[in-house]
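Run log, item B.
One chain of 92 residues. Sequence copied directly from the ordering sheet:
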Amino acid sequence: MCLAIPGQVVEMMGDEAHLAKVDVGGVKRNVNVGLLAMEPGGIGVGDWVLIHVGFALSKVDEAEAAATLALLEGMGEAFDDELEQLKASDIT
């Protein structure tokens, strides 16, 4: 099962590469935020995004992110598997 997981942007890695360091459940990884470059207000530190296979797909508010994380955590193994895949990923 493939999931889009909420994560919070903790650092912008530079405009050219469209990369940001995102924290998902304590796992910090670089993700590509280029798909959100044209979002009104842009993307920045503190923003919440939905991540799938190394790409931020959409910006969400903190309440939606918290609700989604709670739902995903309730899924048990599928969520744990997705976090393990995120830990193993390495986007530079």
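Observations after the first pass:
- The radius of gyration is 12 Å.
- The helical segments are 62-74, 77-88.
Flagged for discussion on Thursday.
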